[in-house]
Amino acid sequence: MIGFPALFHTELNAARRTWLGRIMLGVFLALAVMSVLIGRFGPEFVEAVIGDTYAGVVPAASWAETYAQWTKNLAQLAMIAVIVSAGGSTASLVSSGRARLLAVRPVDRSAQPMAAFAARALVLAVGCICGVALLYGLTRLAFADAPLRQLLLASAAWVVTALVFLALTCGLSAAVTSPGVATGCSLGCYVLCAALSGFTTLAKYTPLGLVGAPNTLAGGGTVALAVPALTGLLVGCCALALGARTFARREL
């Protein structure tokens, strides 16, 4: 792909200098603080509001509850932020007319979606690492026995899941002209995958197994992720490749 380094550098600078990098980092840091607060003070708050009626139902304050809240927040709020941030990665260039600049530059147009994905994947990884570091530090202050291994495994499983849907969204953004359509289709696919992830057979052999894996790993369980991760990355790569091919042949 001719021109990929230059396009990647441009996308990375855009993410660093605009709202994308700051918002993504802020999302992970905010979710880390929120998870610790809910895991530590959530049970006390609920009991203070509703009394002792549901005292046995509300989980006690623990690092396990903190990690569970972290994976829930990642699966909901962080995933939405990832998909929304990628919805206009290429489609916004087309709708605004800026994509025509690629026609007069010595670059391969198919490299644009790839560069957009690579830059956002790097922002995603850095943001998640910072969030995990903050979460673990605060959790250790609240619960001295908080383990690191379970947090790392659950977060790594979520990152793989996020990369699959990031690739899918970037591919759709390159294939269509509307950022809203790309974002909506990706969100719809994610909701459908979350709804079907409870089927054991599908979760074992398809990317559906990635959706519920972080919660299981955070709770100390074990999940066979080799096949779901392989098929998920294959789906993401195919979506990104098809989007790049479509964008390269589109009339700008």
Can I get a quick summary?
Helix content is 77%, strand content 0%. The chain contains ten helices and no strands. It has helices at 4-17, 19-50, 63-87, 91-96, 111-142, 149-175, 179-196, 200-205, 208-218, 226-249.
Map the helices and strands:
Blueprint: H1 4-17, H2 19-50, H3 63-87, H4 91-96, H5 111-142, H6 149-175, H7 179-196, H8 200-205, H9 208-218, H10 226-249
Helix pairs in contact: 1-2, 1-5, 2-3, 2-5, 3-5, 3-6, 3-7, 3-9, 5-6, 5-10, 6-7, 6-9, 6-10
Uncertain spans, ≥5 residues at pLDDT below 50?
A: none
Number of strands: 0
Kindly report the average pLDDT value.
Answer: 86
The percent of residues in helical segments reads: over 70%
- Count of DSSP-assigned helices: 10
Oligomer: single chain
Shape: elongated
Structural class of the secondary structure composition? mainly alpha
Radius of gyration: 20 Å
- Percent of residues in beta strands: under 5%
* Secondary-structure element pattern, one letter each: HHHHHHHHHH
Largest sheet: none
**How far apart are the termini?**
19 Å
